[in-house]
Design brief:
This protein is α/β, with parallel strands linked by helices. 41% of the residues lie in helices and 16% in strands. It contains 10 helices and 10 strands. The chain has a 6-stranded mixed sheet, sandwiched between helices. A 4-stranded mixed sheet has the order 4-6-8-9. Helix 8 packs antiparallel against helix 9. The longest helix has 16 residues. The two termini are 28 Å apart.
Length: 263
């Protein structure tokens, strides 16, 4: 097992920009000239940043945003390999799995349209806020293929018939429909996007970080269980949470009529 501590120092991120402020790590997709299409360098940089965020207790929230007028056009069909000095994390090829098993809040800040494989990020993050003019599509069927990988996350957030229609016809939906179908939490005007995402990120960052991580891990695990298995598992996790330091601090703060101090 690789126990080497990850670091961001002296790394040259070519396809993304990484920023950390107030317990929030922001990953910005930075290939606007290519509509932020996911190439091998970008995927590796995203996975590395997510692994770093999982390692660092001080990071409580991750925001994934993008430069340009398209959030992400999906996979880069140009398969040319590009070298990068950002180390590869073994076993972390899939961004959706990295997000799902981060067990911390992940917000997609969607400033433009989302297509094809980019939906892997949107459907597996905990929150998604988009501008009102954003479009969302899984156009694979129009090219004679199918969004197989996207379905794993899509049908966990979207009603089945809506999701099937979305995949079967390949037609784009607008942000209003995406919100109605559960693909995003909220759509806002372009001038309100920063404010909406910053407020959500800061709200989440100010909550009990250990309990948040513990609860999100339990959520992911119980999501794969049937009800009869999930209920006793969650009962056990509930007892463990109450015995944990965050709950002890939160209860003490409530009784003492003060704000809790999270480590």
């Amino acid at each position: 097992m690789n126990t080497k501590k990850l670091s961001l120092e002296n790394l040259n991120f070519q396809a993304t920009k990484i920023n950390i402020s107030d317990h929030i790590l922001t990953i910005t997709l930075n290939r606007p000239e290519k509509k932020n299409a996911l190439n091998n360098v970008m995927m590796n940089e995203i996975n590395y940043a997510l692994a770093y965020a999982k390692q660092e207790r001080s990071i409580r929230v991750v925001v994934i945003g993008a430069e340009g007028d398209v959030f992400c056009a999906g996979a880069d069909l140009n398969r040319k390999q590009i070298e990068s000095d950002v180390p590869k994390i073994e076993g972390s090829d899939d961004i959706s799995l990295s997000i799902r098993h981060l067990y911390k809040p992940v917000i997609c800040k969607i400033q433009g349209s989302v297509h094809a494989g980019a939906l892997l990020m949107v459907t597996n993050c905990t929150h998604a806020i988009a501008v009102e003019n954003a479009k969302f599509s899984a156009p694979e069927i129009l090219r004679g293929v199918w969004p197989h990988m996207v379905m794993a996350g899509l049908f966990r957030v979207m009603p089945k018939r809506a999701g099937l229609d979305f995949c079967m016809r390949g037609q784009a939906i607008d942000a209003k429909k995406a919100q109605e179908w559960g693909l995003i939490n909220e759509s806002v005007s372009i001038d309100m996007l920063d404010e909406a995402v910053n407020k959500l990120a800061n709200d989440l960052a100010n909550l009990a970080p250990g309990t948040m991580q513990f609860g999100l891990e339990a959520y992911v695990i119980q999501d794969d269980m049937n009800f009869d298995e999930a209920l006793p598992y969650l009962g056990k996790k509930s007892a463990e949470t109450f015995a944990g330091p965050d709950a002890q601090e939160g209860i003490a703060a409530f009784l003492e009529k003060r704000k809790p101090k999270w480590d």
